[in-house]
């Protein structure tokens, strides 16, 4: 493992550790208001200051990181499972199934990602509880992000279908279902792992975009998207530099994922 | 020639399928939208019983699902895309008014992104300096890790045009592919030999490198249209530019589904056309090279 990958692992472990232990590290809950100290600059009590309604920004960053870092992998898992089922099965069955699956994925892929996301998000109710908004946001990401992965898996499964060992197994009379689960799916694992890891930073960035546009996680629940929305009110960069901490954290985490992913991307093709 | 015809036919079929599917989706959402079965004109005290009955009869025609879909598609084919629920204006008018700004923004953004991409990719291949290569990779990697909406916000803060924000959103994606393609092409044995024999850089570029990388670069160019269209939403919404992206954002916030679906279909058609065009031109270029 190269130096940069080791560093990325350490950074991710530290950030994840800090976010998981937010209830101990943070001075207060993410929704607790200090009404006497609204829009306060960093101090000993509030390391990153407070927001416009007096909530501790450091606490919100920790809790927001927890939500983004735990739910993006969950959405990535859903995406990977869907891609494995749709792409893997279509590739394994081949013929008209594969062509149909590819036509559908091509159609989905031709839709710009953000347009698809906001259209799907608008179909859901917007005035829901914060917890439901978190689930809806990440569920949507998981449900809509499978197409590119399905395309790769369809091609890989198609190559496996015509491979010698699968042909031999079929000729030996192995039933199709057993052949798929016992011989095809285990050989798709490296591609599945790669697709899973690739999806995580994509979903983190997508949630941030949705949050800034006001279509993501609802208040008072924090997420990187809702924390970055604060940048909208800035007049100049140097005015309140501590407001950039969530952005710096996001860039560091996504960069760490990108560093870890360089090998995975080669596997994913 | 025959394969080119098949390619064009395939792309044409994909476009028709998108229009039909989009129309179907749009009509379904119109049917499901709140207030579909209600006509406020019935409350007008100036109307007599016969007029009210006529309005009800007209609406009853939409009760038949197949008739409704047919009449919706028929109206759409004649340019009537319905009315926006939130803005109360015909969708067609809204799209016509806002399309020029978005088109201008996307053209300038894509132009800038490709200028930056090709300049950096070619200079990386020409200079062959690991420091320069690392520097460009770090710069593009940093932009890749920034959410598009943050770049839009920063463009407002630094008072730079929205087209530059679009260029900086698209550039890291295109640069990654273009750099790899160009560097790979320059490391081919015949190009190394040509360089060793003292052939000019311009001649190597135009005669040996560009013919090899053009089809793949065209494919990336097709995809970059889709990236730029997606980037138009945060850039227009956060920079206060009244284009299609901002309209889509407003429609999403107001849950104006007929408008949102029509915009999505329009954008999908544009990106499909761009991808198909890039694919067909790439096919022609490959054919000429062969």
Please characterize this protein's 3D structure:
The complex is a heterodimer of chains A (269) and B (290). Chain A has eleven helices and no strands. Chain A has 269 residues and is mainly α. Chain A is elongated, with a radius of gyration of 22 Å. The mean pLDDT of chain A is 88. Chain B is mostly helical and 290 residues long. The model of chain B has no long low-confidence stretch (mean pLDDT 85). Chain A binds chain B through residues 103, 106-107, 110-116, 118-119, 121-123, 126, 201, 205, 208-209, 212-215, 225, 228, 231-232, 234-237, 247, 250-251, 254-255, 258, and chain B through 14, 17-18, 21, 29, 141-142, 144-150, 153-154, 157-158, 226-227, 229-231, 233-234, 237-238, 248-249, 251-253, 255-257, 260-261, 263-264, 267-268, 271-272, 275.
Descriptive key words:
heterodimer; A: 269 residues; mainly alpha; 11 helices; B: 290 residues
Topology order of chain B in helix (H) and strand (E) letters = HHHHHHHHHHH
Strand proportion of chain B, as a percent range, falls in under 5%
Structural class of chain B: mainly alpha
Unreliably modeled segments of chain B: none
Helix content of chain A: over 70%
**Percent strand of chain A:** under 5%
Please state the average pLDDT score of chain A. Answer: 88
Element-level helix/strand string of chain A: HHHHHHHHHHH
Q: Spans of chain A of 5+ residues with little confidence (pLDDT < 50)?
A: none
Count of DSSP helices of chain A? 11
Strand elements of chain B, count: 0
Question: What share of residues of chain B is helical?
Answer: over 70%
Structural class of the secondary structure composition of chain A? mainly alpha
Please state the overall shape of chain B, judged from the principal axes of the Cα atoms.
elongated
The separation of the N and C termini of chain A measures 21 Å
| Continuous helix count of chain B | 11
Query: How many strands, which pairing sense, and closed or not: the largest β-sheet of chain B?
Result: none
Overall radius of gyration of chain B: 25 Å
Distance between the termini of chain B: 13 Å
The greatest interface between two protein chains, and residues involved on each side, is:
A-B, 38 and 44 residues
